[in-house]
Amino acid sequence: MMNIGIDMMGGDYAPLEAVKGLVRFLSTQHSNVLIHCIGNEVELQPLFQEHGIDTSKIKLVHAADTIGYHEHPTKALKEKTQSSIAIGFHLLASGKIDAFISAGNTGAMLVGAMFSIKPIEGVLRPTISSIIPKLNGETGLLLDVGLNADCKPEQMNQFAILGKIYAQQILQIPQPKVALMNVGEEEGKGNILAQATYPLLKENTHIHFVGNIEGRDIFNDKADVVVCDGFTGNILLKMAESVYDLTQQRGIQDEYFNRFHYENYGGTPVLGVAKPVIIGHGISGAKAFSNMIALACKMVERDICGKIAEEIRL
Amino acid sequence: MMNIGIDMMGGDYAPLEAVKGLVRFLSTQHSNVLIHCIGNEVELQPLFQEHGIDTSKIKLVHAADTIGYHEHPTKALKEKTQSSIAIGFHLLASGKIDAFISAGNTGAMLVGAMFSIKPIEGVLRPTISSIIPKLNGETGLLLDVGLNADCKPEQMNQFAILGKIYAQQILQIPQPKVALMNVGEEEGKGNILAQATYPLLKENTHIHFVGNIEGRDIFNDKADVVVCDGFTGNILLKMAESVYDLTQQRGIQDEYFNRFHYENYGGTPVLGVAKPVIIGHGISGAKAFSNMIALACKMVERDICGKIAEEIRL
User: Fold this and answer.
1) Residue B75, domain CATH
2) Residues on chain B touching A232 (C-beta within 8 angstroms)
3) Domain shared by A188 and A207, yes or no
4) Which of A128, A236, B118, B139 is deepest in the core (most CB within 10 A)?
């Protein structure tokens, strides 16, 4: 039995959308999963009843408190021991749950992941990634997308390995093509960081490195895993998300551009920490919550963290 | 009388598309402009005849040679003195023309701009910019988009001034809102470079600084001039250009997304050098060539270089 913990109070539309997401997830077959719903029971119980949730299939974990969006992450996590996020990390650290999901205070989620769960031994810097909808129908991965605004070449070189494992195990790409995001195709192009990272990736025997790609290649099939620093990646990701909004505002309904909607990927796993932690978008709706639970299950099932630990040791 | 020089041999579809662009430009009223068409007269004369160009309205400057795409910029420019690009820079440096345009070897254009024309006194690093199509119908400016892969805060702070002048004079925005591209809105966010640049922009009395913007804000009305390092800017620009290609491949015809097509902005001026130099896209077609000539005229008319020199001195 897998135990997945979810913060029911995190996100702009929580707990209602979290409950709806739970309904959505439970409507599919997941006989081997127990969802630990962490949140205020006074608010949650009537919602569970209203939405016809069979409470024998879940476990309600009461959390009297929540961490707000503008609270200082470290301080809030330390002082609000009864908050849904603090309880989630306590359950995850103590092994009562196998993965933890929240769409609440991103900073608190990162602090919890780094300090209460901790990086896998040998991992220089954990990273967060994002799905890339490719024009050919496939899905790529971009990382880092914001956890590490300044990177070192050695860290970027490891992101490539973390991304490869994720692409193999979750996106089911047997031998992912790994590329470096850059301003030109030839070796030697780029800023100092990209120039110094290229030779490391070229020598990296864990990955199938295909060289540099440019901004125009993100959505084509040149690469499956695209490595960049978190500053560049975060700006790219947010710009890509805004393309979806632009199509909506222009009244365009298109199957491909609809894949740019954040709800489809749900949340961002923190890769490189010892247990699965998934951070949701603040504006997560039912579909996003449901997809995050499904992603958490996959990450536990495929033992992503174990596989990362193994490959980093090599 | 304005004298605009154009390399008729530069670009994948030259000289044919350059000639068509010339026809397009000449069909509008420009009585005070003399176009110096630099290229191989054996190839150009029959094309001029075929496309009905009144050769009294232009000046054909013979260039026996061309610089190819894969030639080494510095070496080619030095050795191929009879190439269209070398002749163009010679004419520009000696004052025979007031602006020079080419869609040929980008490296050679940059080398020519930097070494034969030279930066304006006080300009730390010249920069290249790109137009941003905003959803509200207006046009913004992103810079640097690739000339400076690694930047210093002082250089970024100057890009803001160059961008402001261009936005005022060419995009006709009286008081452009200038923003720093970053990963979050609050001061203190970002990588080391962005963190160090923010206070300089805040203190910069030449500009109306509105703070940080994120990747999702590029196409909205938060800012008119967006400053970033050339690595980030180049990747963003190429990704934005690819969005146009995506819409085309999805069969979407939309007035707004059509503005993402490079032909609409034509070429990229090198800002901060002593005379107007415009670099065209390798795949420039007639519309792009025509728009580049129009842009060159505007830059001369409004004396962009003089205004930059004046403001940098202050």
Assistant:
1) 3.40.718.10
2) 231-232, 235
3) yes
4) A128
| Interface contact A215-B194, CB threshold 8 A | no
pTM of the predicted structure, to 2 decimals:
0.94
Band (pLDDT 50/70/90 cuts) for residue B262 is confident
Residue B47's contacts (CB-CB under 8 Å, 6 or more residues apart) are B15, B16, B19
CB-based contact B135 A237, cutoff 8 Å: no
Burial class (CB in 10 A: 0-12, 13-18, 19+), A137: exposed
Q: pLDDT tens digit string along A46-66?
A: 999 999 998 888 999 999 999
In terms of Cα–Cα distance, which of A225, A232, A190, A234 is closest to A204?
A: A225
pLDDT-derived band at B266, boundaries 50, 70, 90:
confident
Within 8 A of A252 by CB-CB distance, chain B residues are 252, 254
* Domain assignment of residue A312, yes or no: no
**Domain of A40, in residue numbers:** 1-121+272-303
A186 with A227, same domain: the answer is: yes
Residues B282 and B218 in one domain: no
* Residue of A112, A131, A84, A106 whose CA lies nearest to A279: A106
Q: How far is B285 from chain A (nearest CA, A)?
A: 19
What percent of chain A stands above pLDDT 70?
100
Domain count across chain B: 2
CB contact under 8 A, A232 and B235: yes
Q: Is A192 on the interface with B (CB under 8 A)?
A: yes
One domain for residues B119 and B129: no
CB contact under 8 A, A256 and B246: yes
ipTM of the complex model: 0.92
Q: What is the mean pLDDT of chain A?
A: 95
A136 — contact with chain B (CB < 8 Å)? Answer: no
Listed residue (B223, B253, B219, B254) closest to B239, CA to CA: B219
| pLDDT given at position A57 | 82
Determine, yes or no, domain membership for B267. no
| Whether A192 and B257 lie within 8 Å, measured CB to CB | no
Token pair for residue A100?
A: 């933890």
Q: Do A236 and B238 touch (CB under 8 A)?
A: no
